[in-house]
Specification:
Helices cover 25% and strands 28% of the residues. It starts with 5 loop residues before the first strand and ends with a helix. Strands 1, 2, 5, 6, 7, 8 and 19 form a 7-stranded mixed sheet that branches. A 5-stranded parallel sheet has the order 10-17-11-12-13, covered by helices on one side. It has a 3-stranded antiparallel sheet with strand order 14-15-16, with no helix packed on it. The chain is of the alpha/beta class. Helix 1 (16-27) packs parallel to helix 2 (61-74). It has helices at 16-27, 61-74, 137-140, 156-166, 185-193, 288-316; strands at 6-12, 32-35, 49-50, 59-60, 78-80, 84-88, 94-98, 103-111, 115-117, 133-134, 148-152, 171-175, 197-200, 203-211, 214-222, 228-232, 235-238, 242-244, 274-276. The radius of gyration is 22 Å and the shape is elongated. It folds into 2 domains: 6-116 and 242-316, FAD/NAD(P)-binding domain; 119-238, FAD/NAD(P)-binding domain (3-Layer(bba) Sandwich), CATH 3.50.50.60. The structure holds NADP nicotinamide-adenine-dinucleotide phosphate. Residues 52, 120, 152-158, 160, 177-178, 182, 204, 239-242, 285-287 line the site of NADP nicotinamide-adenine-dinucleotide phosphate.
């Protein structure tokens, strides 16, 4: 790889959307490079069990992400482990700046940067991160064997991770700000059936307390009566959704009020040849399978875009 090389396609992000895009791009014979700053798999790699990806009744998130990565690599896609600092659209080509000073150029770019865990923004959350505060039960659950933990949230992630923690911890409190879960019915039923999980309805965590050994309590507030109480716990696992990683999205690309990128049905932004896929894109359902679907659509559309661009350049060339 040299700074002057012009790729057909750069893929930013190695989660299910980016890796699926790589598979389709390689099958379309696009000269492709995929850039990912961490391990391949994105958020899925941190999920305990995935039960809704077709073809796998139950598979660990890590194993599924490995399969995605191995599949993409089987086509020989070039991969770089770098942080992308900027995505810069141009007229003749687009480019991507990396943390080591490299500048990659390509006819088309697919941004699959996903999202990051949303924070509660309460006292103690940042200070005790890694000392009892966590956003990943699969990564940190092991440390809470026979201990008490509080899980915050009411979506699929909170329900799923509370169930995972119930296999390890002595007691799991699931604090949700409303009186009904947002997560799927099947997960709700499993939570209700799990005797180690106690649901704290209409409850928010307002403060995380700790001593020299780490987290030892949370302050809870009843959202109806506004009464406060303290609950002893050694861990706080926060699963309250995520924020789109839109820092790399260049100016001129439309986003909705929540910061998700608006694309057309080809996952193409207002800038020709710049595609956004997966959890960063405005859409109805953020699932592994929809991320993979986006990756497929964008890569096929990118292949058409690159082919058209190249053939028009060839036709315009003087004899
Ligand atoms: P989510 O569906 O957006 O749920 C976030 C939860 O956190 C909601 O219950 C919300 O409460 C609560 N919440 C948000 N902000 C809060 C705050 N400041 N304080 C307290 N609670 C707050 O997020 P998610 O569970 O991370 O899931 C994200 C997407 O991934 C969803 O589309 C989900 O279906 C998908 N996912 C799927 C699976 C699966 O299918 N197995 C697993 C994980 C994630 P309200 O309900 O009151 O808004």
């Amino acid at each position: 790889m040299t700074d002057s090389k012009l790729y057909d396609l750069i893929i930013v992000g190695g989660g299910p959307a980016g890796l699926t895009a790589a598979i389709y791009a390689m099958r379309a014979a696009l000269d492709t490079v995929l850039v990912e700053k961490g391990v391949h798999g994105g958020q899925v790699a941190n999920s305990d069990t995935v039960e809704n990806y077709p073809g796998f009744e139950s598979i660990s998130g890590f194993e599924l992400s490995q399969k995605f990565s191995d599949h993409a690599k089987s086509y020989g896609v070039e991969t770089l482990q770098n942080e992308v600092l900027a995505v810069e659209p141009g007229t003749d080509f687009h480019q991507v700046r990396l943390d080591d000073g490299q500048v990659l150029k390509a006819h088309a770019i697919i941004v699959a940067a996903g999202g990051s865990p949303r924070k509660l923004n309460i006292p103690g959350e940042d200070a005790y991160y890694g000392k009892g505060v966590s956003y990943c039960a699969t990564c940190d659950g092991f440390f809470y064997k026979d201990k008490t933990v509080v899980v915050v949230g009411g979506g699929d992630a909170a329900l799923e991770e509370a169930l995972f923690l119930a296999k390890i911890a002595k007691q799991v409190y699931l604090a949700h700000r409303r009186d009904a879960f947002r997560g799927s019915r099947i997960l709700q039923q499993r939570v209700f059936d799990e005797c180690k999980i106690e649901v704290l309805w209409n409850t928010i965590v307002t403060k995380i307390k700790a001593d020299e050994k780490g987290v030892n309590a949370v302050v809870l507030e009843d959202t109806k009566s506004h009464e406060e109480r303290e609950l002893a716990t050694e861990g706080v696992f926060i699963f309250i959704g995520f924020e789109p990683n839109n820092a790399l999205v260049p100016g001129g690309v439309a986003m909705n009020a929540q910061g998700y990128v608006i694309t057309d049905e080809k996952c193409e932004t207002r800038i020709p040849g710049l595609f956004v896929v997966g959890d960063l894109r405005q859409k109805y359902a953020r699932q592994i399978v929809t991320a993979a679907g986006d990756g497929c659509i964008a890569a096929l559309a990118a292949a058409h875009y690159v082919e058209t661009k190249k053939s028009s350049t060839e036709c315009a060339a003087p004899e």
